[in-house]
Amino acid sequence: MQQKILVIDDDEKLNQLLQKFLGEFGLEVVTAVHPSRGLKLIKKEQPDLVILDVMLPEMDGFQVCKTIRETYTIPIIMLTARGEITDRVIGLELGADDYLPKPFEPRELVARIHAVLRRGGDRAGVPVQSFGPLEIDFDKRCAWLQQELLDLTTNEFMALALLVRNAGKVLDRDHILQELRGMDSDAFNRSVDITMSRLRQKLKDDPKSPTFIKTVWGAGYVFIGQEQH
Question: Is the CATH code 3.40.50.2300 the one for domain 4-121?
Answer without folding.
Answer: yes
